[in-house]
Write a structure and sequence with these properties.
Layout (H helix, E strand, L loop, with lengths): L14 H19 L3 H4 L3 H23 L3 H19 L13 H19 L13 H20 L3 H17 L8 H28 L16 H28 L30 H7 L4 E6 L6 E7 L1 E2 L4 E2 L14 E2 L14 E7 L4 E4 L1 E2 L2 E7 L1 H4 L11 E4 L4 E8 L4 E7 L6 H6 L1 E2 L1 H6 L8 H11 L5 H13 L3 E2 L15 H7 L18 E2 L1 H14 L4 E8 L7 E5 L3 E10 L7 E5 L55 H39 L3 H18 L10 H10 L13 H20 L6 H19 L4 H9 L2 H28 L5 H27 L6 H14 L1
Parallel strand pairs: 14-15
Antiparallel strand pairs: 1-6, 1-17, 2-8, 2-16, 3-4, 5-10, 6-12, 7-11, 9-12, 10-11, 13-18, 16-18, 18-19
GO biological process, one term: proteolysis
Organism: Brachybacterium endophyticum
InterPro entries: Bact_TGase-like (IPR052901), Papain-like_cys_pep_sf (IPR038765), Transglutaminase-like (IPR002931)
């Protein structure tokens, strides 16, 4: 449908006006699209959004040109979604980033249900994986098609403006607390919206008013219109002044410093709960006993003396030190938020380094990292892609506060990833004297209830008397390390129980006692390895207000050419304490190693026999803490079996099921439309006065003609419409019932004549006449669809054109009444003398007569007449008789 071939009731606009309207609407959509920048970071969301804008605008233009109904528009959107969505919505799953694959089609099928959760629970920037581009692709497709369809097919331009506002709302809902050019985008959006809406309103008003001060050769919406030109210039000046004042006043209108902008993603519950997994520190002694010489993983790009972090633990429950996680990412414990691979998670500093981790014998959800901050994670596709199409990048979770990285599916042999990290830098002497404990962190860390008071009193005794906070922590370490012995309790080392429950920690505070005459003696005092000493230090520090946490990891003692091989013997644990510089809000976690030197150990003596051993009852050791039962897949032994090589078949099953659901949904929609038409036909045939039932039969033919895609003349009589229907009858020769095309056309003409007689004649049709008339209607309906291909009949059944036609007629009648009232009001406005009043009266009479003639033609063309009008016509016929 060209701009000049609009249907009745739609505004008559030139191609230039249509192009201007479409351009403004497209610019508003692009301004709304830019709100996603803080979420995605990279430019890919712009490619997705712009392609969705172009494709959906093309669908809307085609729909306006060829009069597509809602069903065809929806079908076109579904085709574009599945045909091009792999390239622009899920390129990470597409082959070569463009061609559809079973995995990409399955993601597109699940996208309307899962994409919003993936986008909101992932830490920005969210990249392009896991279908997160769907929050741009789907809203843009739907809103642009709806907005452009309203703009091109109706006169409700203000309603079309609401759809870019909807896209703007989507960018806010899925955005972050950091807005992208908020002042500039807001001013442009508001100014463009006001200017466009004002121009459209004034153009429509001037067109309707037909002002006498404008030449007939000047279109009301043209720039050559002096009235419109003055108002546009004046409005533009006002907009510029308003924009300038807003920009000048923006510093005073900004929220107070420290006030965070609301973001929906901050209210979402993280998808990864570390409490469902066993603390990695519970397996500390297992690395020493069973995997001491086993090659766990290699790290390329690391230096001697660096440490590899495995997990940060800050929640002690009297039995085990565990990894804590909060729903608030700004808490000291942080939150495990899903992150994207191959994107910059933060801006790297000049000191940033890169390291590549390749997994060998290690397994589990906790991923080895390096340094104090991870800026980027790049999974290696060749090693991490499994048979099901998923990779490390699909299941990454990062706690930025604790610098703990997790792969919820579990690392496996062969997995590899590259980290860009910030290396650890210890505080220098000047900083050690000026740093203070971060009090806010100490108050916000998880509290431990039920600790023995002896832990706190002993910590106060050891830490007191220091002039600075750093020396306070050092005094506590000196007290713990005094007379301490290092032992794993294996081989010929001094006996040392594993675990770090409260009973084990209290035993370390007892006086050293050990009977060398007993080989199985249970020693008391400060003896253990990094597991016990790190937990004891952190617990005692927290009891006296020092913000401390435990970190489990591996020490790299030897790195040849930047490559280090990590074994179970390299496992270690240390303590980190939060400090702040005076006047600064930045938190610095300083590392402390509380375990004594490994050379400081005693050897378990051989058992000796004595003639008169001294009676001594050794204290029984406390029972080891029973670790919580891990869920399936939490530890290496419980890891699920690797996926079967034939698992891609399940993707086809899921995709086929989804297609089946779409087919069922389409069939249900078709059934609803067909049922509505059947009910309408039944009401027309059996309800109402006899004349209404005859007129309803004729309307059934006209509606089927419309649903078949034909457009009869808007001012045609029934006989003229019958000729149009006869010319559109399909095929040549005889129909299925033996009638020729000419005979079928004559029957339609007879039905039109019968409808005219029932409408205008004074006689009331008999019931037998009604039955015969409707029999002819049903026969003509069968002849109209005979010979058509099945898809034409299916589209006619699903078409909503006949329903929309009734709505347009009702709206046209209402507008005609309003226009007649407006002309009457203008004809009598401001008349004070007899001459103008007479002229106004004549104009009003002519207008009313013209309206009456048009109304009669409309009724002759098939519009419904009320019972009262037909009754009055029959009465007038009786009087004439």
């Amino acid at each position: 449908m060209s701009p000049r071939e609009t249907r009745p009731g739609a505004p008559v606009r030139t191609a230039g006006e249509v192009a201007a309207d479409a351009g403004v609407l497209a610019v508003l959509f692009v301004l709304a699209l830019l709100g996603y920048h803080s979420v995605f970071g990279g430019p890919w969301y712009l490619v997705t959004g712009l392609m969705a804008l172009i494709l959906s605008a093309g669908i809307a233009l085609a729909g306006a040109r060829w009069r597509f109904g809602p069903l065809l528009l929806t079908l076109a959107l579904v085709i574009v979604h599945f045909l091009l969505g792999s390239a622009f919505a899920v390129p990470a799953r597409a082959r070569w980033g463009a061609l559809p694959t079973p995995a990409s089609l399955l993601d597109l099928l699940r996208m309307p249900v899962t994409t919003w959760k993936s986008a909101l629970t992932m830490s920005p920037p969210i990249g392009i994986g896991d279908g997160v581009l769907g929050v741009v692709w789907l809203p843009m497709l739907l809103l642009v098609v709806a907005g452009f369809s309203v703009l091109l097919r109706t006169r409700h331009y203000a309603l079309a403006w609401l759809f870019p506002c909807g896209m703007l709302a989507c960018s806010i809902v899925f955005g972050t607390t950091t807005a992208t050019l908020p002042l500039l985008r807001g001013l442009l959006f508001a100014a463009l919206s006001l200017a466009w809406l004002s121009w459209r309103f004034e153009s429509a008003r001037l067109r309707d008013s037909r002002s006498t001060i404008i030449s007939d050769t000047v279109r009301p919406g043209s720039w050559h219109n002096p009235v419109l030109r003055r108002r546009v210039i004046g409005g533009g000046v006002i907009l510029l002044l308003s924009a300038g004042l807003t920009a000048a006043a923006s510093p005073t209108l900004d929220p107070p410093a420290g006030t965070a902008r609301f973001a929906l993603r901050d209210t979402m519950t993280p998808q990864f709960d570390p409490r469902q997994y066993v603390s990695p520190l519970a397996d500390f002694r297992g690395y020493i006993k069973h995997r001491r010489e086993e090659k766990l993983f290699t790290v390329d790009g690391i230096s001697n003396g660096d440490s590899v972090r495995l997990a940060t633990l800050d929640d002690y429950n009297l039995q085990v030190y565990d990894v804590a996680g909060s729903s608030d990412a700004r808490s000291p414990s942080g939150a495990f938020l899903k992150v994207a691979g191959d994107v910059d998670l933060s801006e790297p500093s000049s000191r940033a380094k890169s390291a590549t981790v390749t997994v060998d014998g290690y397994s589990g959800v906790w991923m080895p990292t390096v340094g104090t901050g991870t800026d980027r994670v790049d999974p290696k596709d060749a090693a991490s892609q499994d048979a099901g199409g998923s990779s490390i990048g699909d299941t990454l979770f990062l706690n930025r506060r604790s610098q703990t990285l997790v792969d919820s599916s579990g690392l496996r042999q062969g997995d590899s990833y590259t980290l860009r990290y910030e290396p650890y830098k210890a505080a220098d002497d000047e900083q050690q004297h000026s740093m203070r404990f971060a009090g806010d962190v100490a108050e916000s860390l998880p509290r431990t209830e039920g600790l023995d008071p002896h832990l706190k009193s002993q910590a106060q005794e050891w830490a007191e008397g220091a002039p600075t906070d750093y020396e306070t922590m050092q005094n506590l370490l000196l007290g713990i390390q005094a007379e301490a012995e290092y032992s794993h309790g294996i081989d010929d080392e001094q006996a040392s129980l594993s675990g770090h429950g409260q009973a084990r920690l209290l035993a370390m505070l007892n006086e050293p006692s050990f009977d060398r005459s007993e080989a199985d003696a249970a020693p008391q005092g400060k003896i253990g390895d990094e597991e016990q000493f790190a937990v004891l230090t952190a617990v005692m520090a927290r009891e006296i207000g020092i913000p401390a946490r435990v970190v489990m990891g591996f020490d790299v003692d030897e790195a040849e050419h930047g490559t280090a091989t990590v074994t179970g013997d390299d496992v270690t644990a240390w303590v980190e304490v939060a400090f702040q510089e005076p006047g600064s809000s930045a938190i610095h976690w300083e590392r402390f190693d509380p375990a004594p030197d490994k050379d400081n150990n005693l050897t378990q003596p051989e058992k000796k026999t004595t003639d008169k051993p001294q009676p001594q009852v050794p204290q029984p050791p406390p029972p080891p803490a029973e670790p919580p039962t891990p869920p399936p897949g939490a530890i290496a032994e419980d890891q699920p079996d690797p996926p079967d090589p034939d698992e891609p078949a399940s993707l086809w099953v899921g995709f086929t099921s989804g297609i089946g659901l779409l087919v069922l949904l389409a069939a249900a929609t078709l059934g609803v439309i067909a049922g509505a038409k059947t009910m309408r036909r039944r009401d027309r045939r059996w309800r109402g006065a006899p004349g209404d039932r005859v007129d309803g039969g004729w309307r059934e033919l006209v509606d089927l003609h419309l649903d078949l895609g034909h457009t009869p003349a808007t001012r045609a009589t029934r006989r003229e419409t019958a000729r149009h229907i006869g010319e559109a009858l399909p095929g040549e020769g005889d129909g299925p019932d033996g009638t020729t095309r000419e005979q079928a056309a004559e029957q339609v003409d007879r039905l039109a004549a019968g409808a005219d007689r029932a409408t205008f004649a004074p006689e009331v049709p008999a019931e037998s006449d009604l039955e015969a008339y409707w029999a002819g209607v049903m026969e003509s309906r069968r002849r109209m669809t005979a010979g058509l291909p099945w898809h034409r009949r299916l589209l006619a059944t699903a078409s909503l054109r006949s329903f929309r036609a009734h709505g347009r007629e009702a709206g046209q009648e209402r507008r005609g009444r309003r226009a007649g009232a407006a002309r009457s009001a203008r004809a009598g406005y401001g008349s004070s003398s007899d001459g103008p009043a007479a002229i106004a009266a004549v104009r009003g009479a002519v207008g009313r007569a013209t309206g009456a003639v048009r109304s009669g033609l409309d009724r002759g063309a098939g519009s419904l007449r009320s019972r009262r009008e037909r009754r009055a016509a029959r009465c007038r016929g009786g009087d004439r008789g």
